[in-house]
Amino acid sequence: MKKVLLVILLIAVTATLCVLPFVVHPASRNLIAKIRYFDGSMDTIRITGYSPAGGSIWLKAEDGRIAVIGANNVIIVEDEEYWNE
Asked: Are 45 and 61 in contact (CB under 8 A)?
């Protein structure tokens, strides 16, 4: 009986740890993401949340879209002035 409970507990903990990286954390501040594309161009978007996932970052944009960007191609900064434009 103890082995069964231990296995169930182990499965629950593993499932929780696997799901946590995919939960988008809400941004408590006015954050923007500066994204660099492969052709060298750059873009700046307002984000409402983000979550690291392996070598990528999930960005939730202000309009609800979700983008997955390589971690070395995005900079997340707080910028009150950009949000007020």
From this structure: yes
How many whole angstroms separate alpha carbon 25 and alpha carbon 18?
Answer: 15
Question: Which pairing describes strands 56-61 and 42-53: parallel, antiparallel, or unpaired?
Answer: antiparallel
User: What is the reported pTM?
Assistant: 0.58
Q: In angstroms, rounded to a whole number, what is the distance separating the alpha carbons of residues 22 and 7? A: 24
The pLDDT tens digits for 28-77 are 578 888 999 888 899 888 888 888 888 889 999 888 898 888 888 898 88
Q: Are 16 and 32 in contact (CB under 8 A)?
A: no
Start-end of H helices in the chain: 2-19, 80-84
